[in-house]
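User: quick one, fold this
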Amino acid sequence: MARIDESIEIKRPVDEVFAYTTDAENWSKWQSFIPEAAKTSQGPMDVGATFEGVSRMMGRSLKWTAITSKYEPNKKWAKDIASGSLMIEEQVTYNPVEGGMNFNIVYNMKAGGFLKLISVLLARSMRKETKRSLANLKSILETQTR
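Assistant:
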């Protein structure tokens, strides 16, 4: 299993960052490796909400589905993502700090089949894309008008 753990400080209130990052409509705007994503379940965001989308890494497109496994507004949320033989547990925590908040994202990845053979390369690529995505998120949110 590969683990990716990255954080960034964002000079915005926690509630604004939480609302933006839990809205699937925004994922492709800040996550460089997710060109498509949509919430597929009805009703408000909560545990059990479902999503589908496409990730692009290492020149390949991977379709995925996800289900929200934890949801604590303005504190944390998590989802379990499945793409063929690739399983990813994603957890995001939102911590207030002076002048803004700390956004932390953790991916625990388990790969099987062919993906297991390239899991080290996949994790390296995902770590790089995650760092890029966090910089995008910071830039987008800190330049929005209040």
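User: anything notable?
Assistant: The CA atoms of residues 12 and 141 lie 7 Å apart.
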